[in-house]
Fold each of these.
Amino acid sequence: MSAGAREAVEARVAAAIRDVPDYPEPGVVFKDITPVLADPAAFAAVVDTLAGWYAADRIDKVVGIEARGFILAAPVAYRLDAGFVPARKQGKLPRATIAESYALEYGESTVEMHGDAIAPGERVLVLDDVLATGGTARAAVDLVRRVGGDLVGVGCLLELSFLAGRSRLGEVPFRALLTA
Ligand code: AMP
């Protein structure tokens, strides 16, 4: 993609994201990506861009993080000829799972994956919509590594750089379409 085309995609997607102040709690500015999904050209551009980044990486599985990560990871997996694997909140998956817990500002959260969803040595991409503090993505990365997956990288639509989530990912290659 040319630099001009990439800038046009970024501008269209950025313009479609809505800031929602004080949601879900006071002080948080929620980045609502639903207008991006509702705009066929913007949605296609996001999926094509994410898939394009990893097209040469021989990805076997794309892990999508519940819930909005699913919406991006499934079409990207389809484009990459890879399988889709859901990483879900605690208690949602029906078969034997592995789990990783991580600290939130207040309390703790847990993300789970089916224990047999990724075979040892499979090349894995993790996708989510927004990287905030990075705790959720880090937990997904740890799940992939525990089952012996070969982690190729983490990608997202929007990185909230002021929360420094990227640092939680350490050496894991990370890419974001937009940075706020
Ligand atoms: P974190 O673990 O802090 O990186 O949070 C990432 C997860 O929470 C992602 O699955 C996001 O969908 C969601 N999230 C966190 N902060 C925001 C925000 N300001 N706007 C939209 N989604 C967010």
Note: Residues 28-31, 65, 68, 128-137, 165 surround adenosine monophosphate (CB under 6 Å).
Amino acid sequence: MHFLFWTAAGVLVAGTILRAEPQIDVENRVNALLARMTLDEKIGQMSQSTSMKTPLAESIKAEIRAGRWGSFLNAGSPADRAEAQRIAIHESRLGIPLLFGRDVIHGYKTVFPIPLGQAATWDRELVEQAAREAATEAATEGIRWTFAPMIDIARDPRWGRVAESLGEDPYLASALATAMVRGFQGKSLADALSVAACAKHFVGYGAAEAGRDYNSAWIPEILLREVYLPPFRAARDSGVATFMTGFEALNGVPATGNRFLLRDILRGEWKYDGLVVSDYEAVTEMIRHGFARDASDAAREAATAGIDMEMVSTAYHDHLKSLVERGAVEPAQIDAAVRNILRLKFRLGLFDEQIPPVGEAKPNAESLALAERAALESVVLLKNESGLLPLTEARRTVAVIGPLADSPLDQMGTWTMDGLRDRVETPLAALRSIMGADRVLYAPGLQTSRDTSDAGFAGAVDAARRSDVVLLFLGEEQILSGEARSRAFLDLPGAQEALFTNVLRAGKPVVVVIMAGRPLTFHSVAERARAVLYAWHPGTMGGPAIAQLLLGRRAPSGRLPITFPRSVGQVPIYYAHLNTGRPPSETELGIPMGTPLRPEGYTSKYIDVDFTPEYPFGYGLSYTTFEYSNLTISAPVLHAGQKLTVSAQIANRGKREGTETVQFYVRDLVASVVQPVRKLRGFERVTLQAGESRTVSFTLTPQDLAFYNQQMKLVTEPGKFQVWIAPDAVRGAMGEFELQ
Ligand code: BGC
């Protein structure tokens, strides 16, 4: 391993005096430093740049010396960062260290499943460990700030950034946001291998109208408080070091100039003392939004709203000084922002004498094992007709077909600029190594997921004919999801469905494995395939994970963190909806896709597709079956200040071990603000041996039943409630109690 060290030799700048006094608390150190800063230096701290070329240009070095930048993002090699830091500490007037930020979203060199895939694990501890590993690798290379987790509630799979999200549900997203923050930040921010996390994008960015990225969001305050804010509140409560604002205009006011969000809620109600950064050029984008007249106006709006640091655009740099001199921005506002920035730098230990060495991060046996476990747990089994999976030994020869079977880059998914492509193990490679190359016939059929040529079909069909079972890897390429990757159609792109249809004609059972960054619509494929595994973009070790699941060395345990629509026309579709005055009934199901054959009845449904989702939130099969029974509630009535315990028996009725994610839902039957048909209030992963059963319990307090009333007060109202202990958001064992 190659190390670069900073040396402190012969340097006596003011910054080192501060560094030598670790006993005084952070706030005193912040104030002492702030008192010595010029306005220019303060504005420098409030500015973040991405322009760090390799090798470090002399002009950048000069700017760092002059205190022009507080932070760099996605910039430089580890050696450049080390050198830039040396200059900041030893050659700038006050020796204030730089903070290097980067999009370390789901892994660094070792890539874990995309966040949506991680959410499908419903495994807090695993998600925390994945973030810890990502932090360790990134910090080794001098990154001490990641722009993750993205905790925008996402209910629209057209939005490409659904891949980066933790799904549709505030409770699940809050639990996993907490896990990620813990993982990134470790036990202490001051630990050299901790990175500051960033709760983004505050808030409502995921509600972009029509799923089109950057689009406006209109979210009534009640929905904001019930659905969109909770993950951010959870991140704040777990000590997240930073927040990033969204690109969108929320209710007509850009999130980046939104005083209600930043001042009233974040700083006011939540007493947040961390750093708030804008998104990329979002400050000056307020001009195009039609909210600011020019860059000066944008700087004023952003600074006044409470954006501490401007990402990439330079409105602060160019205008804040004159705004302060003109009295348009209060000096106290600048000081407050700089305090938030310095506080974080102190908390990260950046001022302290021991600057860690910058090394080279590499995947290792442990990180790969963790990535494999994460991929294993993220895969959701959607269909398994007559127990085709796991494959038995009788399936001697497999045909591996499809554009995603052997595509390392695509398998890593969005935001993987640091992921090591040559360390990725694809399903093809893994199957060959486990089964022996002679038992694996490979014919991709299509070059990429968007390929429309049928030139490879004949080879694929031929391989299918010669096999005992077809493993067809379909989905979306890496670049079809993520930022600015909105789609108006959710079908399998290119000629993938045609490939499937052709391969099917070979007459062999077909297992479809889908790798994608979002829920896709693939009804007709799912209908005709014998088994379907949804693998998201599973990361570095996706191949071995999928191979082990197919071959039954492990059993699938992923559960959907987001509702899968039957058709894009149903979007947005999510489980925690309100009932309407005319809810449709089960008897209205069975409408064939796309044919308005039964335009009868005046209920809230579609006349050309079932109103139900293709797969509900929480859904996922295993290689065994679980039975839910004996729901018991510890008392018929819940009184203020008390608790209820709700329990049910979960039995493994199959022939092999399996892991079930037991979900706990509540419904408030009558309230002064109509409540969703179900709300998730707990979940637990349980592993049961064949034949084993276990009682799983959840506790419920009146706070768990609280909601925002018409006056935006969090209240509980007496009345009847239903509870479910359930395998997903639509089934389960149900009970009732009363809140008094
Ligand atoms: C994204 C952010 C990201 C930033 C820096 C923006 O375009 O919206 O999520 O952290 O770029 O790369």
Note: The longest helix spans residues 124-140.
